[in-house]
Design a protein that fits this description.
Elements: E1 3-8, E2 17-22, E3 25-30, E4 39-42, E5 52-57, H1 76-87, H2 92-108, E6 111-119, H3 127-138, E7 144-150, H4 161-164, H5 166-177, E8 189-191
Parallel strand pairs: 1-4, 5-6, 6-7, 7-8
Antiparallel strand pairs: 1-2, 2-3
Helix pairs in contact: 2-3
Length: about 210
């Protein structure tokens, strides 16, 4: 065995068990295992579980409250205005640092997969997606990260987007910039289309979900 976790709890049972592993395979789960390994971990009665999954995290907006001006009116329109003003000045490195703080907290608490949503459109361009891809690289080996290019302002409602196909071009570029294989058939960026009014044409090789 490579690892034996002693004195663990698992879901659905109050019994204290040992968990023996070889590589990424669980070989045995049971009380007082006779298995030995080069590395043993004492769980001290704590819960051992599969990694947690966060499937919807707008990480480009993580911790913005630390940086944006106060919402004086306390209204949604002002909140959107404040956020959009900040998005116009997005810097990929700054986005990556903020997102990284949230990812680090998640990993420390057992999250092993994140799906991160990045606003892509005429306001912030691709900078949010670029920042989340930077964060993805920095956390490679600690967790799996999928980045979603998301047209938050919509296709038809974002002035100029529908006429010029700006958003489609941006999310297509996001797909191409982030296209990497990570041991699976899933690339690092997926494309989300949220406009149900009319079908959209996409460049060859780009999938609109």
């Amino acid at each position: 065995m490579d690892v034996v976790i002693r004195n663990a709890r698992v879901r659905g049972s109050t019994e204290i068990v040992d968990i023996a592993l070889t590589g990424d395979r669980i070989e045995a789960v049971g009380p007082r295992s006779a298995a030995t390994a080069a590395r043993e971990i004492d769980a001290t009665g704590c819960l051992v579980s599969p990694g947690f999954v966060n499937l919807h995290l707008h990480a480009d907006k993580a911790l913005l409250g630390e940086r944006m001006r106060p919402n004086v009116s306390g209204t949604l329109p002002e909140a959107i205005e404040i956020t959009n003003d900040f998005k116009r000045e997005y810097d990929p490195e700054e986005v990556a640092r903020r997102a990284g703080r949230v990812l680090e907290a998640g990993v420390q608490n057992g999250t092993t997969f994140f799906r991160l949503f990045a606003d892509v459109g005429t306001i912030g361009g691709l900078r949010a997606a670029q920042g989340l891809l930077l964060a993805r690289e920095r956390f490679r080996g600690l967790c799996q990260i999928q980045v979603v290019a998301f047209p938050q302002e919509g296709i038809l409602r974002d002035p100029g987007a529908a006429e010029s196909s700006t958003v489609i071009e941006l999310i297509a570029r996001a797909k191409l910039e982030g296209l990497r294989e990570d041991g699976t058939s899933t690339s690092s960026i997926r494309i989300v289309r949220c406009d149900p009014v009319r079908p959209l044409a996409a460049p060859e090789g780009i999938v609109l979900l």
